[in-house]
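Section handout 9: paired folding examples.
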Amino acid sequence: MERLVFIVSQERRELFESLRQLLANEKSVDVVLDRRVVRRRRREEPPAADRRRFARRARPREDVELHARGWTVVRLP
């Protein structure tokens, strides 16, 4: 069964609480606050080499939605 995860920005806590209450009885829906934090290390020059093969957690569309609207939805298998 497919799961839906609503991710809500830290700045929209009132929306998080509302969605959490509204969707509390939905078994295949989760509502979570965005737990990511801004990177602390900031360099002006890029790193020498990126050793990762791919960004497994990168979701550019969802990142844009989260920043613009304050929330996004992710479908999980």
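Moving on to protein 2 of 2.
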Amino acid sequence: MRTLAARRRHPAAIILLLLVGLLITGGAYAVLAPKPAQASLASADDIAEGTRLFQANCATCHGMQAQGTAAGPSLVGVGAAAVDFQVMTGRMPMAAPGIQVMRNNVQFSQAQSDQMAAYVASLGPGPGKPAAEWLDINAEGVDIARGGNIYRVNCAMCHNFAGSGGALTRGKEAPSLMGVEPIHIYEAMLTGPQSMPVFSDANLSPEGKRDVIAFLKNYEQSNNQGGHNLGNLGPVADGYFLWLLAMPLMVGLAVWLGRKAA
């Protein structure tokens, strides 16, 4: 017992205990932590063709090995979802340097985008493209009301209450979500492009993402019962309409009626 007590008091005992604790904690995290979604298994031919396409169209900014340069970030570990979102919304290849990359004409086919995504996914683990079940907004169990609650809490402050988009700081903007494909909305939540935060499966489940998409698509297809929506930009747009059109019209009508009565 005295020998054991003496060893406990040894200065190296604390360091040893810390090392054991870190080892146990790291091992537990590696086993229990949620793993990032992986791209589907791609053939060697797809990866080879994706490499060729990447080096011909993307390497100028992102480097020959996608390691990143002063003109573009590293793509190691961004996953197939990020590639599909950027390429299939026309944001990449970027037309010109700017504060924000805007949606543009798509320059590649879906097959070519998938090949480049396969190459990038082969460089390191990252979020893969969502499975079809998480894009089916008519599936059983989809909760549009829950999606609306999630959207208003997490998204409306940037994208507007109706998904019409809005201004951000330093010349940036949150784009409109109307008319956007469900897969691209999902991929944006999953990867957090540009100023958008990342909503990984650890903090927003695939079911939650699907509910948000269902809410946006339901709003997009609904009729505006109150008349013209004025872009759904809120009270500012309504105020401009009143001051620039309605008020002059009413004042002019009042003057005309007064002269007619005289």
